[in-house]
Amino acid sequence: MEKARINGVELHYDLRGEGNPLVMIHGAQGDQTMFNSFAPIFTQKYRVLTFDQRGSGLSEKPSGDYSIAQLADDTAALMTHVGFDRADIIGVSMGGMIALEFALRHPNRVRALVLGCTTPGGSKAIRIGGEAFTNAYSSKPISSEERGRALAKAAFTKGYIDRHPEIIPAMIEARRQRPLDPVALDGRLKAAMKHDVYDGLSQITCPTLVITGKEDAIISWENSQLLADKIPHTELVLLQPAGHCFWIEQPEESYSAITRFLSAH
């Protein structure tokens, strides 16, 4: 784990593997450890950058307002710090929102774009919400057990949890090891709820893969369809059965779809 001061905030990051630059951007209440089972596979062909965003993981958690644009600019500045002029970008959930904003704000730095289980935001999108989201993404102080259990139930299909009962204690332990800062989480969630790039989608000109689980209970798969319909040069992959954490439920299919897409472009 390395660290650097980026746009006034200390960010923790990992850089591993050899090959073309690849940046992986995590979700709202996650950190770079959410790619622990996925990123190592890509290091066989790519130079992979993962990091804890401001307000997440081991990175600093400043008070005040957060924005998706700010997080996209942090990503660009960190890329510059590690020597990435241009990279393939993978963003999932809120990380997909950041990746969308990145593609609009820094178009010359994106080689190809992968948008996982995310949304363009705005009035045309299906709003993030519902009981699963409310329970799992509460910014109120709750125990690691409550949060880990709620997130597991929201992020995975029931069938996957039934086949992998160890996922709930693993999520609980993850929250114990890296407890969330409720104030920072609240700021990040408010940023996500303000996210709206719908009107700019047609301006994204890089090759784009949109991929999601058909049973996603947090961000409806129909938002992925919306992205695929509005962004030029886009391929859509719907994985089934799979929930929000599609890359964990369907790892082989996810890796195959993403590497095939990146290799083609």
Helix content: 40-55%
CATH class category label: Alpha Beta
Indicate the multimeric state.
Answer: single chain
Low-confidence segments, given as residue ranges, are none
Query: Which descriptor suits the 3D outline?
Result: globular
Give me the CATH fold name.
Rossmann fold
| N- to C-terminal distance | 30 Å
Major sheet: 8 strands, mixed
CATH architecture: 3-Layer(aba) Sandwich
* Number of E-state strands: 8
Strand order of the largest sheet: 1-2-4-3-5-6-7-8
CATH superfamily: Alpha/Beta hydrolase fold, catalytic domain
Q: pLDDT average, as an integer?
A: 95
H/E element order: EEEHEHEHEHHHHHEHEHH
Class by alpha and beta content: alpha/beta
The share of residues in extended strands comes to 15-25%
Number of domains: 1
Radius of gyration equals 17 Å
Count of discrete alpha- or pi-helical segments spanning 4 or more residues: 11
Q: How does this model look, in words?
A:
- The chain is an alpha/beta fold.
- The protein has one domain: Alpha/Beta hydrolase fold, catalytic domain (Rossmann fold), CATH 3.40.50.1820.
- Helix content is 41%, strand content 19%.
- The protein has helices at residues 39-42, 68-82, 94-105, 130-136, 144-155, 158-163, 167-177, 182-194, 221-230, 246-249, 251-264, and strands at residues 2-6, 9-16, 20-25, 46-51, 87-92, 110-116, 208-213, 234-239.
- It has an eight-stranded mixed sheet with strand order 1-2-4-3-5-6-7-8, with helices on both faces.
- Strand 3 (20-25), helix 1 (39-42) and strand 4 form a beta-alpha-beta unit.
- The longest helix has 15 residues, at 68-82.
